[in-house]
Amino acid sequence: MRILDAFTYSGRVLRAAVLALVLAAAFASAADEASSVYVIPIQGDIEPSTAVFVRRNAEAALRAGAKVLVFDIDTFGGRVDSALRISSYIGSIRSAKTVAYVRSGPDSMGVSWSAGALIAFSASDIYMAPGTSIGAAAPVIMSPDGQSQGAGEKTVSAVRSQMAALAEKNGHPPLLALAMVDADVELVELSVDGRTTLATAEEAAALEKYRPGAVERVRTVSAKGKLLSLTAGEAERYGLSKGTVADLDALAALLGSPGPVKELSPSGADRLVVFITSGGVQALLILIGLVALFLEINSPGFGIPGT
């Protein structure tokens, strides 16, 4: 009887161990599903360090099994070359859905302007929070006196075509992209046979000429000489934004991904790199270098400057 009891006890232990393994696997699967949405912040000035941060964290999220990558954009803009690197990388992602989200909150600016708009157009879907805006993507350069001014036609043409290409690739309205970059583009909203559509002023004039009575100008979306910026409601109205959602949890639910989102954040090393490569610190380092050079020239071979 003792031997039989021992076998019975061993069988119970074995069944309990198998059940524990099954439950552990189920919980692991549920955890993976719960963290299928990863959020990568793109905040502050767009710099080379931003491009490195975005790529490193996106690759880490993809290795962890991310099914949706949400790029949380909150920026006035920055360097065009860095924005192009980010948008090119986002456009190359195939194993996960890419979403640009313009958030609003007590610690955010609620905007995706300039280089931020370029990055947003590289995602397959765009969502915005209430009270946010997107646009004003014309490139600017710094003048010798430190003031920003519009870039030349060569630069504007290049950025304009790239924005339009991203819009075509991801199903965003190309005319909105053009009007955000080029102030010469006049954009109007038309009602054609009861359907709302967008057209340039030249296209609208041609439609009115060849289809009199069927075309009605509703409003001017972007006047000539002005860059286009859209509110969250306007972006949704014209088909740029897929929807207006309050926060990331609501966005995850709308995307059909249950469970809390996993928000990635810059590490201490990331913050240090951003600080060192900032314009103010670079200017200070250049000044220190010039002072050291001056001291070396005036006192060669003596003291610290001459060592």
Low-pLDDT segments: 1-34
Q: What's the pLDDT, averaged over the residues?
A: 84
Q: Please, how many domains?
A: 3
The name of the CATH superfamily of the largest domain reads: 2-enoyl-CoA Hydratase, Chain A, domain 1
CATH first level of the largest domain:
Alpha Beta
Please summarize the sheet with the most strands: 6 strands, parallel
Quick rundown:
This protein is of the alpha/beta class.
Overview of this structure, please?
- There is one protein chain.
- The protein is an alpha/beta fold.
- The protein folds into 3 domains: 35-176 and 226-267, Alpha-Beta Complex (2-enoyl-CoA Hydratase, Chain A, domain 1), CATH 3.90.226.10; 186-223; 277-307.
- Helices cover 48% and strands 21% of the residues.
- The chain has helices at 2-34, 48-63, 80-92, 115-121, 153-170, 174-181, 201-210, 232-237, 248-254, 268-276, 279-298, and strands at residues 37-43, 68-74, 97-102, 111-113, 125-128, 133-135, 140-142, 148-150, 187-192, 195-200, 215-222, 229-231, 243-244, 262-263.
- It has a 6-stranded parallel sheet with strand order 13-5-3-2-1-14, sandwiched between helices.
- Mean pLDDT is 84; it is low at 1-34.
